[in-house]
Amino acid sequence: MSAPLTPQTAAACAKGDALPSLTVQVTRADLVRYAGASGDLNPIHWSDRVAAVAGLPGVIAHGMLSMALAGRVLTAWTGDPAAIRSYGTRFTRPVVVPDDDAGATVELSGTVAEVREEGGERIAVVDLKAAFEGKTVLGRARAEVVLPG
Fold first, then answer.
1. What radius of gyration do the chain's Cα atoms show?
2. CA distance 91 to 77
3. Residue 31 phi/psi, 5° resolution?
4. Residue 132 located in a structural domain
5. Is position 89 within any domain?
6. What's phi and psi for 133, nearest 5 deg?
7. Are 81 and 75 in contact (CB under 8 A)?
8. What residue stretches are annotated with the MaoC-like domain (predicted)?
9. Collapsing DSSP states into helix, strand and coil, what is residue 1?
10. In this structure, are residues 3 and 78 in contact, taking their beta carbons and an 8 Å threshold?
11. What is the CATH number of the domain that holds 17?
């Protein structure tokens, strides 16, 4: 693998290249802000009691928040959110967010799986990874990014 890519080197990327990784702390305050912005007010994202009744190990982050955080790896790399052509994933494991100031640590990374020409554009297919406590929280996380010309 080569050195992590930057927006300046994105145009020259190749299969196997690593995108710059990112580590994010997710706190309960983040969950409250995300709930308000998204309209997803499900109490499993803020109430320990409800999370326990639902059989969860604690309050969990919204799956779409985890997906968005992984997307930050792409936007940091490209420097242009509009360069993301498609992005999909499966939610495989929750991010449990403790009721403290530290929150949960989520480690995010990406690797170029393929680079192809399509309709006069260079497209990078990127496999993304999001991990909490060393375990993957997103499965089959893959995006297509239009590379700068």
1. 17
2. 23
3. -65, -40
4. yes
5. yes
6. 55, 40
7. yes
8. 21-117
9. coil
10. no
11. 3.10.129.10
Q: Considering only CA atoms, which of 24, 38, 44, 22 is closest in space to residue 103? A: 24
* Torsional sign, CA 78, 143, 83, 95: negative
The amino acid sitting at 59 is: V
For residue range 13-33, list pLDDT tens digits in order: 999 999 999 999 999 999 999
Is 113 in a helix, a strand, or coil?
strand
- Tokens of residue 9, six digits: 């080197």
> Which tokens sit at 133?
């406590």
Q: Which domain holds residue 15?
A: 10-26+62-146
As a whole number, the mean pLDDT across the chain is 93
Q: Is the pLDDT score of 73 beyond 80?
A: yes
Cα gap 77→19, rounded to integer Å = 7
74 closest CA partner among 107, 109, 113, 121: 109
Cα 28 to Cα 118: distance, rounded to the nearest angstrom: 42
